[in-house]
Write a structure and sequence with these properties.
Elements: E1 2-7, E2 12-19, E3 23-31, H1 33-39, H2 44-66, E4 75-81, H3 85-102, E5 106-110, H4 111-122, E6 130-135, E7 140-147, E8 150-156, H5 162-172, H6 179-187, H7 212-227, H8 234-260, E9 264-268, H9 275-288, E10 291-293, H10 297-300, H11 305-316
Parallel strand pairs: 1-4, 4-5, 6-9, 9-10
Antiparallel strand pairs: 1-2, 2-3, 6-7, 7-8
Helix pairs in contact: 2-3, 4-11, 5-6, 5-7, 6-8, 8-9
This protein binds 5'-O-[(R)-(carboxyoxy)(hydroxy)phosphoryl]adenosine and zinc ion (ZN).
Residues 111, 115, 136, 138, 269, 302 line the site of zinc ion (ZN).
């Protein structure tokens, strides 16, 4: 089944064509990096307008790159849950229009479910059940993934998402946006043990996260040293900050793995591109006899191929949406647990 996927939940306008949830024929992503750099982050109204300008071109480009036309498309999957409301509306309106005009099945997808499928697209052998850590600019979630469409939320962030913490620290130090890749690069030249920063909620029994205190600790440390005219080595700060985040993410994930007695971990979302996070997960999993799976780098951040793949799994089970499909900016993933 050839599924057209559409993703516009935040700042990437994306359309993709994927066969049977496995074979990616095209995955076009138009980023709003110019706007992000200009405003230092996503401005929801401006992002939604940019999606409206681009969506038609991006869908056309996805068909052209796959050498297909709308006549070949058999279903439409679109991110309808979790994201910025105006942005989600653009993608859902486009998907509904194509579904109605062509008489095609339509399925609304939760953005996090899309990220879960990004890992499956890159790793078809990813087993169930597994623990999935989804870490991006908008979310930090630890999930017990029971089967293809059934999830249990174990923990989430109480304040900033992991990617948001990277972005905010980068902004404070006037570094390039988005901050994650910049700090990742800089950390390679720094000493990760130079500063001992707090590991928020690490010793706490819950699976929730909190990164806002860590961010404040870095900023306060910098200000204190500055007041005493002691300059801080920025590369060491980047490395120590990154290490604190990685430590919390890996430790909590391994604790969930032990409690649920699973053998596999999947790490998805923009922050799963982080080289230190990948390195520590790989080391720890080798040591503990576990398997860890990451999406390919191009599927870590928001894209429509993951939405098409998630849509195929739902359609295969006979689950589809109708033309009343609405957008829900903030709905938990378990609300979709139909099994
Ligand atoms: O999944 P995504 O494209 O969008 C959301 O759903 O939020 O993730 C974007 C986030 C940004 O916060 C960005 O800084 C972060 O992922 N990111 C990284 C890396 N690459 C992207 N964070 C740490 N290290 C990276 N290499
Ligand atoms: Zn995302």
């Amino acid at each position: 089944m050839l599924v057209l996927g559409i993703e516009t939940s935040c700042d990437e306008t994306s359309a993709a064509l994927v066969i049977d949830g496995k074979e990616i024929l095209s995955n076009v992503i138009a980023t709003q990096l110019d706007l992000l750099k200009k405003y230092g982050g996503v401005v929801p109204e401006i992002a939604a307008r940019r999606h409206a300008e681009l969506i038609g071109y991006v869908i056309k480009e996805s068909l052209d790159r796959a050498e297909k036309t709308l006549d070949d498309v058999e279903a439409v999957a679109v991110t309808a849950q979790q994201g910025l409301i105006g942005c989600l509306l653009v993608g859902v309106a486009a998907a509904k229009a194509i579904s109605y005009a062509r008489g095609l099945p339509l399925v609304g997808i939760h953005h996090i479910e899309g990220h879960i499928y990004a890992s499956r697209l890159s790793n078809p052998d990813l087993p169930f059940p597994h623990i999935c850590l989804t870490v991006s600019g908008g979310h930090t979630m630890l999930l017990y993934v029971k089967n293809e469409t059934s999830y249990e939320l174990l923990g989430t962030t109480l304040d900033d998402a992991a990617g948001e913490a990277f972005d905010k620290i980068a902004k404070f130090f006037n570094l390039d946006f988005p901050g994650g890749p910049t700090i990742d690069r800089m950390a390679k030249q720094g000493n990760r043990y130079a500063f001992h920063l707090p590991r928020p909620m690490l010793r706490n029994n819950s699976y929730d996260f909190s990164f806002s205190g860590l961010k404040t600790a870095v900023i306060n440390m910098f200000k204190e040293k500055l007041a005493k005219n002691v300059s801080l080595p920025i590369y060491d700060i980047a490395a120590s900050f990154q290490e604190a985040i990685v430590d919390v993410l890996v430790t909590k994930t391994l604790r969930a793995v032990a409690e649920k007695n699973v053998q596999a971990i999947s790490v998805t979302g923009g922050v799963s591109a982080n080289s230190r996070l990948r390195e520590v997960f790989q080391e720890q999993c080798r040591h503990n006899g576990l398997a860890v799976y990451f999406p390919s780098l191009s599927l870590c951040t928001d894209n429509a191929a993951m939405v098409a793949a998630a849509g195929y799994a739902r359609l295969k089970r006979g689950q589809k949406s109708n033309l009343r499909l609405n957008v829900y900016p903030n709905v938990p993933l378990e609300a979709r647990d139909e099994d």
